[in-house]
Automatic annotation (TrEMBL):
Gene Ontology MF, one: oxidoreductase activity
Keyword Flavoprotein: yes
Domain Nitroreductase: from-to ranges: 9-161
Keyword Nucleotide-binding appears in the UniProt entry: no
Name of the protein this chain belongs to: Nitroreductase
InterPro entries in alphabetical order: Flavin_OxRdtase_Frp, Nitroreductase, Nitroreductase-like
Length: 314
């Protein structure tokens, strides 16, 4: 299909016929994913094809009971993945660098580009697709279910199958709000009203704010996702302050380490009156006790002091 026509007509599909995707189409779809551009040719992503119906069911439930995850012919988990890259570097005697934020950045970019190519090829072949950000609702459980190692986190899911519905394409924001020229410019209140007007058809009640409020305002879905996402990122080695094994060890003791700041807050919450940082060490203090942790970074030192301070869970 002509690509322009495809983008004119494409829409996400959430109802699928119980029909499989033939092998040769599946081959083309995965081929497209692998042909996507990738930073430094490093291919910092993996695609996890979920064929086990029980696993599909669990993921559908953990993603907010999204039925289309189960009914789609194919469901893929798109993973940001620097584990394989690390293995490749170490395989040749190299020492993998420490670049956790940048790793997250490029690995997510690579995963999205591969997913986007996969999705577009599937749509060009006449299949319907739906991205699933809902996997972040159960990111900890899903990551454990599919055995993700350090250096690998889920980015999104992707349903692909034969459409069993024909919804209208959804609107987008006015071009002028999305495409800037030379300088980023501020938005006028009138333009913001135009944005809401353009997006009005997206909800049954005709108010896009209802969607934005539910997801992005205080108390919304995104805030609920933030804590578990930070904790998983730390455990998988994507936090600049916290070494992955220590984040993992703290989680095993019932303290989900999300960030250095959160660990300091947690220490105060647990009754410590002072967290004293020195070069290469930290003291955790309260009236009758003090705990010391050493480490190359404040996060490492604090994580060790906290591990010493908190008794093992029974
Ligand atoms: C990163 C991402 C996550 C998404 N997560 C979900 C999801 O969890 N469930 C769902 O039904 N649709 C999901 N979608 C689909 C969007 O709702 C859809 O793309 C958007 O409403 C625009 O509609 P259209 O794709 O039909 O143009 C997601 C899309 C993206 C890009």
């Amino acid at each position: 299909m002509d690509l322009y026509r495809l983008y004119q007509t494409r829409r996400s599909i959430r109802k699928f016929k119980r029909e499989p995707i033939p092998e040769d189409d599946l081959e083309k779809i995965l081929y497209a994913a692998q042909r996507a551009p990738t930073d430094a040719t490093a291919q910092m992503y993996s695609i996890l094809r979920v064929t086990d119906p029980e696993l599909r069911k669990r993921i559908a439930h953990l993603s907010g009971d999204q039925e289309h995850i189960e009914s789609a012919a194919e469901f893929f988990l798109l993973l940001a993945d620097v584990w394989r890259l690390r293995r490749l570097v170490e395989h040749r005697g190299g020492r993998f660098g420490r670049w956790p934020r940048t790793a997250a950045h490029f690995a997510i970019v690579d995963a999205v580009l591969a997913g986007s190519a996969l999705a577009t090829m599937a749509e060009a072949l006449g299949y319907g697709i739906c991205w699933i950000g809902g996997v972040l609702n159960g990111i900890r459980e899903i990551s454990a279910l599919v055995d993700l190692p350090e250096g690998v986190i889920p980015v999104a899911g992707l349903c692909v199958g034969v459409p069993d519905e024909d919804p209208a394409p959804r609107p987008r924001l006015p071009r002028a709000l999305v495409v800037h020229e030379n300088r980023y410019r501020a938005y006028t209140p009138e333009e913001l009203d135009e944005a809401y007007a353009a997006m009005r058809p997206i909800t049954r009640k005709g108010d896009w704010y209802r969607v934005l409020d539910r997801y992005f305002a205080e108390g919304g879905t995104m805030e609920l996702r933030e804590g578990p996402y930070q904790a998983l990122a730390a455990r998988k080695g994507f936090d600049p302050d916290l070494p992955a094994p220590l984040a993992e060890a703290l989680t095993a003791r019932g303290l989900e380490a999300r960030s250095l700041g959160q660990l300091i807050e947690e220490a105060f919450r647990r009754g410590y009156r002072g967290v004293l940082f020195n070069q290469g060490a930290v003291w955790l203090e309260k009236e009758t006790e003090a705990h010391r942790g050493e480490g190359a970074t404040p996060g490492e030192a604090l994580a060790k002091a906290l591990l010493e301070a908190f008794p093992e869970e029974a």
